[in-house]
Amino acid sequence: MRTLQNFVNGKKVSATSDKVQDLINPATGEVFAKAPVSNASDVDKAMQAAAGAFEVWKESTPGERQKAINKIADAIEARSEELIGIESENTGKPIAVTRAEEIGPMLDQIRFFAGAARNLEGKSAAEYFKGHTSFIRREPIGVCAQVTPWNYPMMMAVWKWAPAIAAGNTVVLKPSDTTPVSTLWMAELMQEFLPEGVINVVVGDRDTGRALIEHEIPQMVSITGSVRAGMEVASSAAKDLKKLHLELGGKAPVVIFDDANLQAACEWIAVAGYFNAGQDCTAATRVLVEASAYEDVVALLTEQAKNVIKVGMPDEDVLVGPVNNANQLARVQGFLD
Fold it and tell me: pLDDT class for 122, splitting at 50, 70, 90?
């Protein structure tokens, strides 16, 4: 059984912590790998590497950054089937859905940020006082500490590192403790096209993430997670005035009036609710229906759940695979019990 390692300063590095945790394939319930639970010392090594790399990467031109990021996109695309298999094993996502709905948009996002590196905007220079010219200069921030969730591991990693690196920053990223595999794979692939230390991945639990956020080096913190986690991160970042980006969980209601096309509405509500096994911050979690249409909507959604939405194993032609982890399964079952 393989044991994962952190990716720091351009190479795989064993954590100094002896603590590990099992990674479980949601489709089989079997342990397929072990992952380190990194400590503050491991985080510090990654931060020092990123800080050193920043002195080089911040001087790269937008064109150089664009070229590197486009090469990363090309390399991921060439090995996309390998990445799909890794993501499915770690998350339980249906292979066909991941191929159709995630890989293409993810590659497009990487290439978008590669182009955006050459299109930074700013206010024009002007003379607001005689003899003085005022202007805004866009400069890289520094090291970015980033934390991603388990529901879209590879895509959320891209949403973090691509804009940060495109803007000339360096990254220390901590993926979810249950789904680190695709992020580590991606970092290793990226290293061919980036200076050592520009992308670093540290694997661990909440305490690892806390050490990441509280470390003195990063100038910006970005997290995708729960509202509770966002509040804790905001409080921690405020102590030394780190820049902050929060993408937090939502509660997405759907409103239906009786003059709507109920059949079409319920078809798309079912997709919105069940896509990615409902593990999505924009999943349709509540349906508010005008009283006169209530019974019809209940019947139509019941039909979708019973006979239309396909559920099964990741290698089957289905929309819904297993949920990601035991805690999530217990949470879903709690809604029914």
Answer: low
> Residue 329: its pLDDT value, please?
84
Per DSSP, helices labelled H in the chain are 40-57, 62-78, 80-91, 95-98, 104-116, 153-166, 181-190, 206-214, 227-238, 262-274, 294-303, 326-336
Which tokens in the block code for residue 133? 């010219």
What would the pLDDT profile of 211-268 be if each residue is shown by its tens digit? 999 999 999 999 998 899 999 999 999 999 999 999 998 778 999 999 999 999 999 9
- Find the distance separating the first CA and the last CA of the chain, reported in whole Å: 36
**The whole model's pTM is what?**
0.91
| β-bridge pairing 132-134 and 126-129 | antiparallel
Cα–Cα distance, 289 to 49 (Å, whole number): 54
User: CA 25 to CA 314: how far, in whole Å?
Assistant: 11
- Cβ(167)–Cβ(141) below 8 Å: yes
Q: Could you tell me the domains of the chain?
A: 2-118+138-248 (3.40.605.10), 252-336 (3.40.309.10)
272-308 per-residue burial string, b: 16 or more CB within 10 A, e: under 16: bbbbbbbbbbebbbebebeeebeeebeebbeebeeee
Catalytic residues: 247, 281
